Amino acid sequence: MVSVQEKKGFICDMDGVIYHGNRLLPGAKEFVEWLQANNKRFLFLTNSSERSPRELQEKLQRLGLDVTEDHFYTSALATAAFLSKQCPNGSAYVIGEAGLVKALYDVGFTMNDTNPDYVVVGETRLYNFERIERAIHLVLKGARLIGTNPDLTGPTEAGIAPATRALIAPIELATGKQAYFVGKPNPYMMRHAQKLLGCQSEETVIIGDRMDTDIIAGLESQIETVLVLSGVTSRETLVNFPYKPDHILDGVGDVVKGA
């Protein structure tokens, strides 16, 4: 683990790495305290679009971790940044939570359920037939379909739950339109993360629990990768992928053990 510990910058996933739902994972507190004590640059990069950076900060605070708001970057922020460049002051019909809506408002977007420029889907518990039906009609009328991230599932305290790609699939199937996903492993989000972190690729490591987003994002960005087995991916499912991480750990706390 010496090579990982000597990195200057750490890009770290949250769900399945730092916590499951409202349960802090073993070793997460020690890992964050180690980052701070060693003056590491770190960024929590999450494909979840539900919460704003402030809400994520407050969540970690409730779990006993003191991290400032500037250490968080979400797929909602990346999606908003992407759409604001594509269509300044545009409009969207959103199936998602407050973090996504706020991110879009903050870049000048308005909410529109009649003739929006985009239909944007993120994680949400406010998922029902009426919303899907509305989204299908809008996409067929010309709205472009955007997903905040390509995750099929996500870890929770109770087990695995459907994530954005699963939620957006009925819209794709009914319209014949393929969504564009902004979150990891999209290079757009990774470039923003590296810019915020202020470190070169060779100085950085990405830590995540998903082979199909975190690890492939690191590989494609030429960033050293650490897979933790505390979330979605298990040792048994590693064989399903034609690529492998640089390191495999049981949990994020193992980064600290050799320090």
Characterization of this structure:
The protein is α/β, with parallel strands linked by helices. It has two domains: 2-47 and 184-257, HAD superfamily/HAD-like (Rossmann fold); 76-181, Rossmann fold. The chain has helices spanning 2-5, 28-37, 53-62, 75-86, 98-106, 129-140, 164-175, 187-197, 211-220, 254-257, and strands at 9-12, 19-20, 23-24, 41-46, 72-74, 91-95, 110-111, 118-121, 144-147, 153-156, 159-162, 180-181, 204-208, 224-228, 247-249. The strands form four sheets. A six-stranded parallel beta sheet has the order 5-4-1-13-14-15. α6 (129-140) links the parallel β8 (118-121) and β9 (144-147). α6 (129-140) crosses α7 (164-175). The radius of gyration is 18 Å and the shape is globular. The N and C termini lie close together (8 Å). 47% of the residues are buried. The mean pLDDT is 94.
For the sheet with most strands, the description reads:
6 strands, parallel
**CATH topological fold name of the largest domain:** Rossmann fold
How many discrete domains?
Answer: 2
CATH architectural type of the largest domain: 3-Layer(aba) Sandwich
Distance between the termini: 8 Å
- What is the CATH class designation of the largest domain? Alpha Beta
β-sheet strand percentage: 15-25%
Q: Record the strand order, biggest sheet.
A: 5-4-1-13-14-15
Poorly predicted parts:
none
For the CA atoms, what is the radius of gyration? 18 Å
